[in-house]
Design brief:
Elements: H1 13-22, E1 27-31, E2 37-41, H2 42-58, E3 66-70, H3 75-86, E4 90-93, H4 100-110, E5 112-117, H5 122-128, E6 137-140, E7 163-165, H6 166-172, E8 187-192, E9 202-206, H7 207-218, E10 230-233, H8 245-252, E11 255-258, H9 265-275, E12 279-282, H10 284-297, E13 306-309, H11 316-326, E14 329-335, E15 342-345, H12 350-353, H13 357-365, E16 375-379, E17 394-399, E18 422-430, E19 436-441, E20 446-448, E21 451-453, H14 455-462, E22 468-478, E23 482-491, H15 499-506, E24 518-521, H16 535-541, H17 548-555, H18 560-564, H19 580-587, H20 591-613, H21 621-627, H22 637-642, H23 652-657, H24 660-663, H25 677-689, H26 695-721, H27 727-789
Parallel strand pairs: 1-11, 3-4, 3-5, 4-8, 5-6, 6-7, 10-11, 10-12, 12-13, 13-14, 23-24
Antiparallel strand pairs: 1-2, 8-9, 14-15, 16-17, 17-18, 18-19, 20-21, 22-23
This protein binds adenosine-5'-diphosphate.
Adenosine-5'-diphosphate binds near residues 193, 196, 313, 426 and 441.
Length: about 800
Amino acid sequence: MQGLMQHGALTLDKIIDHAAQWHGGREVVTRSVEGPIVRTTYAEIHNRAKRVSNLLLSLGIRPGDRVGTLAWNTARHIETWYGIMGVGAVCHTLNPRLFPEQIAWIADHGGDKLIFTDLTFLPIIAGIIPRLPNVEHVVVFTDRDHMPADFRLAGDAPHFKGLLCYEDLVAEQSADCVWGGFDEGTAAGLCYTSGTTGDPKGVMYSHRSNFLHTFITMQPDVMGLSQRDVILPVVPMFHANAWGVAFSAPATGAKIVMPGARMDGAAIHELLETEGVTFSAAVPTVWQMLLQHLESTGGTISTLKKVVIGGAACPESIIRAFHEKYGVEVVHAWGMTETSPVGTLSTMTDALEKLPYDQQMPYRLKQGRPPMGVELKLTDDDGNALPHDGKAFGHLKIRGPIIAAEYFRGAGGKILDADGFFDTGDVATIDEMGFMQITDRAKDVVKSGGEWISTIEIENIAVGHPKAALAAVIGVPHPKWDERPILLVKLKEGETATKEEFLDFLQGKIAKWWMPDDVVFVDEIPLGATGKIDKKVIRQRMKDYVLPTIAAAAAGTATLAAADGAGAPVLYAPDPVETPEDVAEAVEPVHEPEVLAAQAEAETVSAEALAASLPDPEPTPVAHIAEAAEPEDVFPHEPLVEAEAKPLEPTPETAFDAPPVFVAEEAPLAMPIQPSKGRKAKAAKTETSGKGGWASPILIGAVVIALVPAALIVVGALGARFGLLDKAIAYDLMTRDLAPLVAWLSLGTGALGVVVAMIGGVQRHWKRALLALAITIGTLAVLFLATGVGGR
Ligand code: ADP
């Protein structure tokens, strides 16, 4: 049976209709690309959006056609969105921060027929139009006075009919246009992932998915938007729909402030203060710039209440600075282009809200809990569900009506699992309270000795160092552990620092085996097209980087200090476990004992290769430097074999204090290492066939001869006693005649054994030589005693 309610397709035109009718006078403020602050209203935006629709229809755009926008956050951009979507065309947001070739590729792949752009991006347009045969027109968001007098394309484009002036066209069109009337599943927007982890892929939003996303974001525990808010979306409309704000602000009737082309600290601060902004949203790097600006100018924040920070992990330093210095609440959020984008938010629960702020911090740092409408699951590589214990790392998967079901034009093939969940490509944990924490992108995670190290966690702490402007961690190749993390730091303007300052800063805040193997100071940490640290570029730049220890080993100097150019390499000195908390931390994490097991396994496989590749052993840095002069000592055989008796025990001390990933490379002597089966066999072979191996059979013969008299006496005596042997044979021949004779002979072979042992290697053979001698002497002594007392 069907419900008897009106259906009312969830199409986006209804949002701006609502805003115009019920919040028509509410302001929309823009820092225009031309310069001045421009003010308009939702009613005006609605009116002009209708004109844009007519303009599109006049230019031949039909339902389903893709219309590109290469533009900043402005009122014109908002009205164009609604104008495009209202007639069933698809708004394709192009990201100007990509390289022109990428933009051209994306616009072409998207099948764009027309592009709206800002003056700022005309150089990009000039470059890409020759590669976009379907684009006949480009509409420039400006008035007649600002239209460029001279615009030339970078190549031939006979299909291109020229630039059009937005304000002229809008003025010419009628505001009478019918919107909607199509199915709510109709495509509304197209946005390509920025390709951080591969080729860009198109995510095609529907009217329904964006409508539902709008409802979701407005909830108090999500963005908590209200008509009384003044919203500044710094996050660009080309970055996952400005996280939905261009829909949710008009839906609530909130005033909206659009930053245009300027997102520097000074410009954002000015808008916050002059427009009375209460809510904002952006990636962490934007807030970092604002906070640095406030710090250097002594500026204050007077109206801002809440900022949603996402797109990349939000460091504690930002959350604290906002809270402690400016009284602003930070809500850390996670999402992606494929999730519309809001997936989770670290809004405090009732129970957490009652805790002191410092105790809330671990939860505020996590990416948080999903709102109603978003389902999450955590699985291992085989798709098995992992526990929500805050420790088990796994693949984060997501499902719901605001999540992509497939990419445009089928890129990437099937993207949902059997249960309809999309694999986000993120690695995460979920704790008992339901707070999800991203530990890495699956492709960025550092895999050290078979275990995962979260680069995000290390970065977040490192960037909290007072001298750090930006920090990034990447994995670099390591012959033993596959990869080890290194920390790249961009210092704040005018600062200087040493590696040790940063390593000391990390001490005690991360597991010791997560400690970066090196700190590299850089002038620039590249940011991707969505303002996130671009690890693909960093990895490319660091492709020739070699860890100092490995370089030193290769150069034969094998001193970390020399290779590092640093002073005492404190980072390699294992610290004692100091507190019970340390011990608890050491035992608690699920992966620590597993790491030990994994390391032992890794050792078993690669011990021989290591012997050749590793630098000098060094139990401590001081010993390391002292011993470095004697390269012959590198990885001697004996400790490898001895180590068999001391298998790795995941005791709290070893688990925490001597994590193999961390210590073993520098102190292989201190590390019990399991020899491989092949190695054991080889060792045994060396024992018998190596230098002096001929002495062993002679000595074994000497021992056997030494035992013969005793055997003759025992056999003779027992044979006579039990009547098994004739007395003449048993006693006269065996015991009295032969035994002493053989005993004297064995004294000779025993003495010969000593000589043989000395030639064949006293260290290896002394035991057998002495044994033969001792038995012979003992036998002779017994014989003398027996003869002396005259007994039989
Ligand atoms: P792209 O995939 O093109 O980089 P997205 O904006 O879709 O662009 O990026 C989504 C990814 O950004 C997520 O999968 C996740 O790895 C990362 N991300 C988003 N928000 C956060 C966050 N709060 N903390 C850590 N990573 C985040």
